Amino acid sequence: MREVRFKINGEEKVVTVESRTLLVHMIREQLSMTGTHIGCDTSSCGACTILIDGKSAKSCTLLAVQANGKEIITVEGLATAEGLHPIQEGFKENHGLHCGFCTPGMMLRAIELLEKNPDPTEEEIRWGISGNLCRCTGYNNIVKAIQYAGAKMRGAELPSTEPEFV
Amino acid sequence: MIKCKTSKEIGGMGHSIKRKEDARFIQGKGNYVDDVKLPGMLHMDIVRSPYAYAKIKSIDASKALEIPGVVAVVTGKDLEKYNLHWMPTLMSDTQMVLPTDTVMYQAQEVAAVIATDRYIARDGKEAVVVEYEPMTPVMDPYKSLEPDAPVLRPDKEGKTDNHIWHWEAGDKDATEKVFNAADVVVEQDMYIPRIHVASIETCGCVANYNKVDNHLTMYMTTQAPHAIRTVIALVAGHVGLTEEKVRVISPDIGGGFGGKVPVYPGYVIAIAVSFLTGVPIKWIEDRSENLQADSFARDYHIKVAMAGTKDGKIQATRFKVLADHGYTDASANPSKFPTGLFSIGTGSYDYNNAFMEADAVYTNKPPGGVAYRCSFRVTEAVHAIERITDVFATKVGKDPAQLRFENFIKKEDFPWKSPTGWEYDSGDYHAGLKKAMDVLDYDALRVEQAEKRKRGELMGIGISTFTEIVGAGPSKDFDILGIKMFDSAEIRVHPTGKAIARFGTKSQGQGHETTYAQIVAEELGIPAANIQIEEGDTDTAPYGLGTYASRSTPTAGAAAAMAARKLRDKARKIAAYLLEVSEEDLEWEPGKFSVKGAPEKSKTIQEIVFASYTNHPPGMEAGFEATHYYDPPNLTFPSGAYICVVDIDNETFEIKVRRFVAIDDCGNIINPMIVQGQVHGGLTQGIAPAMYEELIYDDQGNILNGTFMDYLVPTAVESPNWETGHTITPSPHHPIGAKGVGESPTVGAPPAIANAIVDALSVYGVEHMDIPITPYKVWKKLKEMGKI
Ligand code: FES
Ligand code: FES
Q1: Within a 10 A sphere around the Cβ of A123, how many other Cβ atoms?
Q2: pLDDT one-digit tens code per residue, B84-128
């Protein structure tokens, strides 16, 4: 058993885990933050994506002990008293989710993408989220959601959210 | 533009209102089955067979039981004591829950380990020692029918071969006559490979049996909670789990696509263990277990032929299918339809003669197959007809668009009786294809293609103009285990004019919480924002058969409209009483009744509802509630015209979908944003089998791509930017003229893509390729043909 100290969504935590415990299991089971999901066992799907010291990471592929001394953001830490994070608003306004299972991971991945590249092209977004699978949406509206969030974060004019359904 | 009858504030049909359910999903507050945590809950993991076909010589659990935290190891012999080691499938076949002597496919459940946490359960699983005596599996369905094949199901009394059933539709003799006399006959073998729904959430459950109350609450990933409750009661009624003692809760579901309709052994074992111990048991599949053991679809070998005149008039079609069901027929079709609705495969074309036959066979593959985003085998049928139509067009030397225009059933000929007996309710196929061609500028693309061909470049254009059949179904023909396939809605409006509505269906991402509210808003004029939708809890929702096969809008959506209309009739009576006029003197506009010719005299729906609780007319029942069970008079027949443009690298044979235009006709549209979203998602699930996905087995029955590392679910990079649009031909028999849309794109996209690729390769004389069409397969094909 090992003790891990870290900050998650702004709160200090000390948790005792087995050395083998995966970070995703610690978050979901010990901290009861179930917004971070598990979609595979081969680091392929990205449903478990979180931010760790600002970098997106697949929490199923990290041990809980690797979080020691780090700062973690999960989907539960995105909205503030002022309201939704721009990426959350982007997904909602652009119908960027169906079942919602991939959505937390997708949004956290997108946040890092937008921080590095505030005005990405469609192609950059598609490659940027290619480590995250979505089985429901066909990705069109995820791309739009990320473009919308980028515009909002840059303070640019917001793109239309009307469906182009000719 | 889609016309709306209600204001934006009311948000009835046609408004792209944002989804109500999103608030919880984007904030990590969804409640999926693995999020359910109960006090004292134990975890279950499953020991699975490494062999596709083997005798079990022994199972030694002693080492596992020594591990602190391992509570029990359950085997088939344990379940046998309670007669729970076998279970019925929805197709009246039987399936092992846990084997007592033989395993029939790789990854089959062999034993279950129960432990205090999931890591310890996994340790226990590793420590269970099973001794097998491997046998040679039967992996090829054709070989399975040969006389010397081992009989795979000796458990079935009197079974001497591996044949499951034979099915026919259409007129054999008349069709043969047309074939014999036809100018042109084309024939093609095609394989629609075994694929997987691969919803990002796997399957799982928490079974919670309370010994004191003799009551089971089952949280599970199911698309059909009521049907599951009845099945549990039918299977376990003899041990006391009668239907009033069972509550099935289907929480938020992370994608279903048909894979969460069947009952898998894991669920049953969890129930059995919880029943015996009185402790909640959680079982959550790994992705690899999910890919390897359940939820597979397709696996149809089809020989399809088309006969016609030399100037391109289609006269007849013939289909012969071999269906590989694995070791048991665990499809989830309506009971009377072993091939599902395959007989829609005569297509969108006007001809009178068709004959179809199918045979199903056992092999040593996982059991199935589920209706993956498909109204039961429609995907296979549409692929066959749309591919053979192109083969025929090539043979008679016609442009595939032109040939389709000349053969389409005409708008004025609906309702139209198909050669296999369906009555297509409505459609305008010419309008759909014309629109798709206009969006792309089809003629310009053909010019570009001709120029490219001169330069040796490979470009292809592929069309698919499909007719769908959804909304199962009319009770005359449609049932599952005898239960008719109606669906239901119950609306309760509270005194202040806000409502809750409950349904027998279950959304897995389709957005029911929004679209059902819009249907009720359309009919009653109560703002959709004030209508709460609930599904998935059998203790509260009215009985229904669930969500799959694009049936929710055609059945439960219709029920919502019908229940709302009952309430509107009541509202009219109350308004007449309040306004002291006769009912005939009132007219309705969304949200209020007013007196004809005196519009200032009116009552809003909210005032009327309030009166129903505070001042209802003498002799009338108080309150404002209605329920409706909707039994559809016919199925609905959505259609689509899809065109795909591909470029193929002439050295690497990398295939790039440059453009893809999908024009769908799903009748009246409830929420354009959601319909479009459904189409996008379905298209990506259409490119998947067309170019990437297939579950591959070797001849020893080993799955070669049973993880997400090698089963290629398209990412945002493989998935192109979809271009979508619509035409509207309302269903004449559906209360709101809607038809259903969820599966159309999955059904319609693969042949459009395959046709485009074959069109590009036609310069080499290629006439057909089986999906998934990969660069390697193209290279191999051209090599075999001596073209490169
Ligand atoms: S759960 Fe799939 S990548 Fe982590
Ligand atoms: S919304 Fe269902 S997996 Fe992405």
Answers
A1: 11
A2: 999 999 888 999 999 999 999 999 999 999 999 999 999 999 999
CATH number at residue B552: 3.30.365.10
Catalytic residues of B: 223, 373-374, 743
Pairing mode of beta strands B300-308, B184-192? antiparallel
Number of domains in chain B: 3
Q: How many residues does chain A have?
A: 166
pTM: 0.97
Nearest-atom number in ligand 1 for the CA of A131 is 3
Q: pLDDT of B316-351, one tens digit each?
A: 999 999 999 999 999 988 989 999 999 999 999 999
- Inside any domain, residue B98: yes
Does B342 share its domain with B407? yes
User: Do B507 and B597 belong to one domain?
Assistant: yes
3-state DSSP call for residue B244?
helix
A98 alpha carbon, closest ligand = 2
CB-based burial, B271-304: b 16+ in 10 Å, e otherwise: bbbbbbbebbbbbbbbbbbbbbbbbbbbbbbbeb
- pLDDT-derived band at B1, boundaries 50, 70, 90: confident
Spell out the domains of chain A, with CATH numbers in brackets: 2-77 (3.10.20.30), 86-154 (1.10.150.120)
| Predicted-assembly ipTM surpassing the 0.90 threshold | yes
Residues 627-686 of B with CB under 8 A from A: 672-685
Nearest chain B residue (CA) to A17: B119
Section B372-384 average pLDDT: 96
- Tell me the residue range of the domain where B62 lies: 33-135+203-284
Q: Give B-chain residues touching A84 at CB under 8 angstroms.
A: 26-27
Query: Cis peptide before B259, with omega less than 30 degrees from 0?
Result: no
pLDDT of residue B90: 87
Whether residue B763 has pLDDT greater than 90: yes
Same domain, B227 and B102: yes
For A109-155, what is each residue's pLDDT tens digit? 999 999 999 999 999 999 999 999 999 999 999 999 999 999 999 99
In whole angstroms, give the CA distance from residue B144 to residue B396: 38
Mark whether B117 and B250 lie in a shared domain.
Answer: yes
CA of B335 to the centre of ligand 1 (A): 38
Distance B55 CA to ligand 2 centre (A): 40
Which residues on B lie below 8 Å from A104 (Cβ)? 28
Which residues in chain B are contacts of A133 at CB distance < 8 A? Answer: 200, 708, 713, 715
Asked if B119 lies within 8 A of A33 by C-beta distance, the reply is no
Identify whether residues B275 and B402 lie together within a single domain: no
Written as one string, the DSSP assignment of A38-91 is ---SSS-S-TTEEEETTEEEETTSSBGGGGTT-EEE-GGGT-BTTB--HHHHHH
